């Protein structure tokens, strides 16, 4: 169980570091968040148009 918790922490740290390294500025973070929101809206609107699949 301790190994599992350690693995989860390591994965979260790697993902966090990768995310932060991709956004070098506050503006970059804002652009990434905006892009994620747009993608989510497109996905939701697309899934409603085809019956939720």
Describe what this molecule looks like in 3D.
Helices cover 85% and strands 0% of the residues. It is an all-alpha fold and 53 residues long. It is flat and about 40 Å long. The longest helix is centred in the last third of the chain and has 24 residues, at 26-49. The protein contains two helices and no strands. The model has no long low-confidence stretch (mean pLDDT 79). The chain has helices at 2-22, 26-49.
| SSE topology string | HH
In total, how many beta strands? 0
Question: Helix- and strand-based class?
Answer: mainly alpha
The number of helical elements comes to 2
Low-confidence stretches: none
For the biggest sheet, the summary is: none
Terminal Cα span: 37 Å
Task: State mean pLDDT (0 to 100 scale).
Answer: 79
Radius of gyration: 16 Å
The best one-word shape is: flat
What share of residues are in beta strands? under 5%
Q: What level of helicity do the residues show?
A: over 70%
Short characterization:
The protein is an all-alpha fold and 53 residues long. It has two helices and no strands.
Give a topology summary.
Blueprint: H1 2-22, H2 26-49
Question: Which properties best describe this structure?
Answer:
53 residues; flat; mainly alpha
């Amino acid at each position: 169980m301790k190994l599992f918790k350690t693995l989860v922490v390591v994965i979260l740290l790697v993902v966090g570091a990768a995310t932060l390294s991709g956004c070098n500025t506050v503006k970059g973070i804002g652009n990434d968040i905006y892009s994620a929101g747009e993608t989510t809206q497109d996905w939701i609107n697309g899934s409603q148009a085809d019956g939720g699949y």
